Amino acid sequence: MNSKSQFLSSWFLAAALTLSVVGTACAHHHYYRVYDPYYSDYHVWNHDEDAYYHTWARENHRDENRDFRKLPPQEQTEYWTWRHSHGDHDHH
């Protein structure tokens, strides 16, 4: 294999590894819509909503790393009640 072929092979390998890492990092930012049955609206669960959730969890002595979708209905109600009285809440 000549040096040009080795260079191209190395470059393609590096590019593939970089894309793999970037793809993994992007997968972490998976947004989804959450229906708020108490106010009959939708919220996009994105970075902003996640920040509100973490604030609510800290203020209410809840585990902020617990997935909102796994909270009991009563705690979800508490969150939405709190959320509608704090800051901008986009309806989607």
Strand content: 5-15%
Envelope shape = elongated
Q: Residue-averaged pLDDT, rounded?
A: 79
- What distance lies between the first and last C-alpha atoms, to the nearest angstrom? 57 Å
Q: Which regions are unreliable across 5 or more consecutive residues at pLDDT < 50?
A: none
Provide the succession of SSEs.
HEEHH
| Oligomeric state of this protein | single chain
How is this structure best described in words?
The protein is mainly alpha-helical and 92 residues long. The protein folds into two domains: 1-29; 32-83, no CATH class. The protein is 53% helix and 11% strand. It is built from three helices and two strands, in the order H-E-E-H-H. It has a two-stranded antiparallel ribbon with strand order 1-2. A hairpin with a 4-residue loop joins strand 1 (32-36) and strand 2 (41-45).
